[in-house]
Amino acid sequence: MFARRMRASAVAAALCLSAMVPGVAFADPMRIAFGDIATVESLHLLAAIERAKEKGVEIDVTYLKSEDIAAQAVVSGQADIGIGGPYALLQKVKAPIRIFLQLSKLQFYPVVNTEFYKEWGDLDGQEVAVHSRGSGTEAIMRLMADKNGIAYSNISYVPGAEVRTGALLQGNVKATIVDSSGKRVLEKEAPGKFAFLPLGEVSATDEALFANTDYLSKNEKDVEILVEAILTTWREVAADPKAAIALRDKYKLLPDATPDMIADIEPYFTEAAAALPLNGGGEDAAKDDFEFYTVSGALEGKATDLKVEDFWDLDALNAVLAKIGTK
Predict the structure, then answer these.
(1) CA 273, 274, 278, 279: dihedral to nearest 10 degrees?
(2) Among candidate residues 84, 48, 89, the one with its CA nearest the CA of residue 234
(3) pTM of the shown model
(4) How is residue 118 annotated by DSSP?
(5) What's the confidence (pLDDT) of residue 206?
(6) CA distance 223 to 100
(7) Which pLDDT score, from 0 to 100, does residue 225 have?
């Protein structure tokens, strides 16, 4: 794992330079708050950000402890764009933010240590760990509790699928939910020790980009450049998972990645390709989310009563799709 990067020094340097050169104006960077750490799973996003920079958009990415903190940073104006799934925040707090691009669909695997549990029923009255409050992982685990007629004693929040995977291997967590990389690690490192519980059909947003409505309206072109960079990168990686390796090399991403992490790039994107929304989600994704998150409890009310425009701003996405076409 490599250290979280905060790039505050670069911003400070730019401010100092502007003060030193009278009459020279510097555009404010696009500030992205990422409630996680940069790993193989975010490699394609890091590459897309580099591509947006090549198109003239100055971008600063800050890695934060959780999606909750990232969302709070956007709401408070400390960041322009957040990464996560802010549906509950949008509805309950009525924060002036909107989702404008779906980054990934849910692709997770509930897992238990078989020394203690074997099936969903065994988790009645037990503790489970998920990514963060309001996340897709929490929604899945709450939904499955409801479907199986059980109630957890507690839900703990452990950001990072690789962190939860490590906690399972170390015995610090007995029941949680991991991504495809975590699943492969568990199967390789401790075959037979963990059981992956049945999930059924789930179609909903895992992570999305969201921003303050004022920022979206005042920075249309920059947002469109970012959206286009992401969609073209998603399509490239989905067509050929090896492209993720080439992008890492080109932009010198994840410089502290271990050999095991590098070896996991192609397998991860081969499996993740099906969960990459090549058209950015849009209205169809919003309606799928309404169905899933009302059942799981993250959203209140009936799915049919919820309005897309209350949660999404489709202007940038529609403009980019009109330019690059739909897949």
Answers:
(1) -160
(2) 48
(3) 0.78
(4) S
(5) 87
(6) 9
(7) 98
Q: What angle do CA 61, 65, 71 make, to 5 degrees?
A: 70
- 159 burial via Cβ count (<10 Å: 0-12, 13-18, 19+): buried
The pLDDT assigned to 219 comes to 97
Q: What's the half-sphere exposure (Cβ side, CA atoms, 13 Å) at 3? A: 3
Spans of the chain below 50 pLDDT: 1-26
Same domain, 87 and 137: no
**Measured between alpha carbons, how far is 326 from 321 in angstroms, rounded to an integer?**
6
Report the alpha-carbon distance of residue 153 to residue 125 in Å, rounded. Answer: 5
Instruction: Please check whether residue 174 lies inside any domain of the structure.
Output: yes
Do 222 and 317 have their domain in common?
Answer: yes
Tokens 């059981």 sit on residue: 195
d(CA 213, CA 253): 31
Displacement of CA 179 from its chain's centroid (Å): 12
Residues present in the chain in total: 327
The residue assigned the tokens 């469109």 is 224
Distance of CA 101 to the CA centre of its chain: 11
- The range of the structural domain enclosing residue 122 comes to 109-196
Q: For residue 92, what is the DSSP state? A: I
Smallest CA-to-CA distance from 89 within 132, 45, 128 is with: 132
Across the chain, mean pLDDT equals 88
Same domain, 304 and 269: yes
Q: Is residue 310 part of a domain?
A: yes
36 vs 259: CA distance, rounded Å: 21
Distance CA 315, CA 179 (A): 31
Strand partners, 11: none
